[in-house]
Amino acid sequence: MQKILWVLWPSFVVAGIAEGIFFTVIDPQELYLFGQPVHFSKIATYSVGFFGFWAVCAASSLMTWFLQLSASDLNKNMHTPHHSGGSVQQ
Amino acid sequence: MASITPNPSQESKPSFVEESLYEVHKKVHPRAVSGVFATWRWALVWFTQLAYYGTCWLPWNGRQAVLFDLVERKFYIFGLVFWPQDVIFLSILLIISAYSLFLFTAVGGRLWCGYACPQTVYTEIFTWIEQKIEGERNARIKLDAAPMSARKLWLRTAKYGSWILLALWTGFTFVGYFSPIKTLWSSVLSFSLGPWETFWMLFYGAFTYLFAGHLREQVCKHMCPYARFQGVMFDPDTLTITYDTERGEPRGARKKGVNPQSIAKGDCVDCGICVQVCPTGIDIRDGLQYECIGCAACIDACDQVMEKMDYPKGLIRYSTEHAIEAHWGWKEIIGHVVRPRVIIYSAILGAICVAFVWGIATKASLRVDVIRDRATLAREVEGGLIENVYRLHVINVSEQPHRYSISVSGLAGIDMTGDRIVEVPPAAAKTYTVQVRVPPDSGKKGSNQIFFDVKSLADEKVAVHEKATFLQP
């Protein structure tokens, strides 16, 4: 649960800031989607934009979490006896 | 350590840290408290929530007084209308908020967290509801431990039901700042709320419910970035909630009215009430901790105990590191408020505030953007004249409708066709196409500078002199 929050929470905060800055500067009607002008309502564009930012930021947080795993966390998954330090602890 | 980590190449620390971060969350049931600071906290709850739930219902000039109209991309704040071009004001406002936070924190510690932060305020309200329905701290702990029964089911339903209603209203109010709230309310009543409005209402409501009802101090401890870095704004002269160790220790139980010196003890009777009232569940007697949100509930609680014991109040009090060390009174503490850090923060804050007010006061009430028609660069029209086409985007930022005259100058024999007098409704923008014509021998080949003048007929001070380029083939 805590790991999920570590990924979702910071990305939520940053997505909120990114959304604010992006749509202050850019009018949703000036956006193009696959070469076609965006034809959703503005509220829908803002909302989709927010979740887009959230998804991108969450991907970044997920990768950070993944890369900061320690050696012992990774070795837990290796089932060779001399690498089983993690499982002895449990 | 070595015995539990047989492989020396692996650090024992990470797994250890991880386990401590996976702390089993013990539910904190803060005991209700009354006193000077509790009164202040409730005053702030009333003030902030009357402002939040009420402002969106205020009318102004036939519209909602405060409305962030995302569809029209206009922010209305009482008499002011902000356009995307005014984003600078938003940035300045954020800088002002940040510097105010720095200044307050440097002087008075976590005043924001303890009294004004929405997390504190909503937790306060949700806890109050919980206490009214389920009873005081001990009753709530007992109820948590009790097996499910008809009574428990009823109390839980009543509590969660009230929380959900309040959360929904909070979510509705939130959306009401972005979509006119009166229309929104009639759509709620007729079940015709738009899908996105419904979604954001539930989304905001759900977060309110989760944060104030269930996560509470967890938000401050694990989720709030400010709680993590507020320590850097502290110095030894910052007011914090402090337990006077010298006076309190050694702590211990005793009968009422016993002179502490006669039993070789300090003033702390070790009743533990300061811990019971703490919304984050810490013991302030262990010293300043980052979990302390500075709500001063322990001060109120301890003062009541001291009063009962006939000891002087203030065993836990607002004080500074220096004041505790040197046994200063309020006079010396206040004397140390003015220090370089505070002066710098105040000076920057003051300067930005002045700039902000000046900027708002002198905000232009008319804006004109000239866009050259790129499709036709220049063409020859009847009578051998050369024509360039422009689009004039006229933005009336004021709250009154305005009639403007449009004229062009800058080249010999220059003239224009199209509307010369235009009317723009309040807080609206209109685009006009203007054909500018000059004789073929006027100006030089290539680009020439011309000017558009847009002037209000009612007020000649409202005028814009805008540059444009005329192409002569």
Structural notes for this entry:
The complex is a heterodimer of chains A (90) and B (473). With 90 residues, chain A is mainly alpha-helical. Chain A has one domain (2-89). Chain A is 67% helix and 4% strand. Chain A has helices spanning 2-25, 42-67, 71-75, 85-89, and strands at 32-33, 36-37. A two-stranded antiparallel ribbon of chain A has the order 1-2. In chain A, helix 1 packs across helix 2 (42-67). The radius of gyration of chain A is 20 Å and the shape is elongated. The relative contact order of chain A is 0.13. The model of chain A is unreliable at 83-90 (pLDDT under 50). By secondary structure, chain B is an alpha+beta fold. Among the domains of chain B are: 235-328, no CATH class; 366-472, Immunoglobulins (Immunoglobulin-like, Sandwich), CATH 2.60.40. In chain B, strands 8, 9, 10, 12 and 14 form a 5-stranded antiparallel β-sheet that branches. Chain B has a 4-stranded antiparallel β-sheet with strand order 13-11-15-16, with no helix packed on it. In chain B, a hairpin with a 5-residue loop joins strand 9 (379-380) and strand 10 (386-396). In chain B, helix 5 packs across helix 9 (195-215) and helix 7 (150-176) crosses helix 9. The longest helix of chain B is centred in the middle third of the chain and has 27 residues, at 150-176. The model of chain B is unreliable at 1-22 (pLDDT under 50). Classes of the chains: A mainly alpha (90), B alpha+beta (473).
